[in-house]
Amino acid sequence: MDSARPSRLPCRRAASAGDASWAAASSCRTSRWSPSAPPNSIGHILDGGVMSSKPTVTLDMSGLSCPAPLIGAKRIVDDLEVGQTMLLVSDCPGTPDDLIAWARQTGNEVTVKERLEGGRVAYLVTRGSGRKSMPKANVTLDMRGATCPGPILEAKKVLDGMKSGEILMLASNCPGTPADIDAWVKNTPLELVERVEVARGIFEFYLRKK
Fold first, then answer.
1. Would you say the pTM of this structure is higher than 0.90?
2. Residue 118 structural domain
């Protein structure tokens, strides 16, 4: 994709005020993004060779292990209008399962997939109208890869510096975090506004400081 502009996604464990996006990959490898695919590119190698219309956005996550392709797709699709499409290219074997589970929860649709060379697969994701609106986070804390009780301890440090009414979004894939969160909010002035499993074993917790 010659016209695609390179984009380096942020590293894991990012925590910054006003930033509600995740890190798309732990290694911060480069992905390729373009608002629409050029002729004869992966964006047109679908449905027997040519798509009837170009995707709104094309995101090539080849070479990145799961769940990075899903997380990258989530960041893009969250900003699309209903009915707009994103073409996601991935060579991770777990991507289709991740996309299907995510689509069921969000109301988005995975409408097309086509095998490309090099073990890559192209998935056409359509932004649906049934997506549940998530709370707007004031601060994001990505603790994927950290073992329990690490996510809770780091979240406490961040929340201690936040104002009453502000929301922290904590991302974690530690199996014990859901139970830790439930116990934590019962004994502290916190409200668990929302909990979403965005991929297999990966949760977003939206915590409001009272």
1. no
2. 26-126
Catalytic-residue membership of 11? no
DSSP 188: S
Q: What is the pLDDT of residues 68-101, one digit of tens each?
A: 898 899 889 988 888 899 999 999 998 988 888 8
Query: What is the dihedral sign for C-alpha 95, 85, 120, 60?
Result: negative
Of 83 and 45, the one with more pLDDT: 83
How far, in Å, CA of 109 to CA of 124, rounded?
8
What total of structural domains would you count in the chain? 2
Both 189 and 103 in one domain: the answer is no
Is 84 in the same domain as 163? no
Q: 106 and 43 in one domain?
A: yes
- Adjacent-strand bridge partners of 86: 57, 125
Catalytic hit among 11, 28, 92, 148: 148
Calculate Rg over the CA atoms of the chain: 18
> In this structure, are 119 and 186 located in the same domain?
no
Per the structure block, which two tokens stand in for 209? 């400081």
Task: Output the domain CATH number for residue 195.
Answer: 3.30.110.40
Q: How far is CA 119 from CA 42, 92, 93, 127, 175, in A?
A: 13, 9, 9, 26, 31
